[in-house]
Amino acid sequence: xxxxxxxxxxxxxxxxxxxxxxxxxxxxxxxxxxxxxxxxxxxxxxxxxxxxxxxxxxxxxxxxxxxxxxxxxxxxxxxxxxxxxxxxxxxxxxxxxxxxxxxxxxxxxxxxxxxxxxxxxxxxxxxxxxxxxxxxxxxxxxxxxxxxxxxxxxxxxxxxxxxxxxxxxxxxxxxxxxxxxxxxxxxxxxxxxxxxxxxxxxxxxxxxxxxxxxxxxxxxxxxxxxxxxxxxxxxxxxxxxxxxxxxxxxxxxxxxxxxxxxxxxxxxxxxxxxxxxxxxxxxxxxxxxxxxxxxxxxxxxxxxxxxxxxxxxxxxxxxxxxxxxxxxxxxxxxxxxxxxxxxxxxxxxxxxxxxxxxxxxxxxxxxxxxxxxxxxxxxxxxxxxxxxxxxxxxxxxxxxxxxxxxxxxxxxxxxxxxxxxxxxxxxxxxxxxxxxxxxxxxxxxxxxxxxxxxxxxxxxxxxxxxxxxxxxxxx
Length: 475
Description:
Elements: H1 2-21, H2 34-52, H3 62-83, E1 90-91, E2 97-98, E3 106-110, H4 114-117, H5 122-141, E4 151-162, E5 178-189, E6 191-193, E7 196-198, E8 205-211, E9 227-228, E10 231-236, E11 239-243, E12 248-253, E13 260-262, H6 265-294, H7 301-320, H8 322-341, H9 347-368, H10 372-376, E14 380-381, H11 385-388, E15 405-410, E16 424-430, H12 451-460, H13 463-474
Parallel strand pairs: 3-4
Antiparallel strand pairs: 1-2, 4-5, 5-8, 6-7, 8-16, 9-15, 10-11, 11-12, 12-16, 13-15, 14-15
Helix pairs in contact: 1-2, 1-3, 2-3, 5-13, 6-9, 7-8
């Protein structure tokens, strides 16, 4: 046991020496990575405990063991120094000289002006600014960003009033504005350019966290403010990940309200009819405008002015460059000839309006054939329904409802117009990897060119961090 105690005492001395080496006395270029040293010290400590539990008879030469342990300790420290030099260059798969051990920094920017902020309710502005600070502070304290190693981090704070999206954009007036705030977080890796460390923010891993913005959780509308229902595809630390028709979105719903409300078959058909009726009105207006101007088009004042401008430019250019003047005249003559040869026929507008009217008639027939229960049933949409069932709505019968997508609207009661707390939070991911919006299906890469993806994946998988973050945001 005497030998074991001596070994333990020697190991304690070595570990203490290793601790001193991890301090600030080393030059910047040779600073020891604290994580690596802690790992090394842990292994030495375990070895020492092992020594203490072994009978002294097993060690016939204590001095040999002491020398061996000292050698391993020094070798481990030297290896850590060599591996973690901030100037160490690692080539990416594309041959880019990356600096994965260089210490970076975090910056914060505001992307809203005070004039706009003054138009918003004060309590809403205070709410978002408080949550911005809480979110950014939490991220900066995470070990991946404290400090960033191999990359720089940037936080952008944003606020805006967002109106309800619709498709087409002109169909149905945009309404129900929501005042929302969000942060954008960028990780940009260090690499060498002309021998100097640099970052390129256009080449970044980033994500966005939206506060109280219901209009970014469902993808792109199918018609007006109606969407094909996003599908839950995964769980993110107790909350849902949805696949929309545009991207995957992580949604944290604090409101207690459903995210989406169903759209009946009858309601959808009425919306589609309204779309075609609006088309007819626009075709008639365009025809009226065309008929009022087409007869005098060639001899209009505007045409005469254009001709005078051409002649003036042509004559001036002729003084200096005859070839350029000839090219200009040739182009002008071609344009005039094209305008004269165009056939303007008001029947084009009549045909478009007639087609729209035929769609309305078919939709009315489709609706009339439905029973009251079928009208009230949630619409299921699939583009193949046009051919499969010879309809113009794209709705699937109940016998095929498993094939298509359920139709929904975003719940209008999900977020208050002037919120006093965070009711909804959504996270939108953007990796450098091909599966850019799906960190759930991405794995850590050995390629140094994807270092920022790896850093984000480390944060993404930290369940304790996210649970605390969500609790803070919800308060």
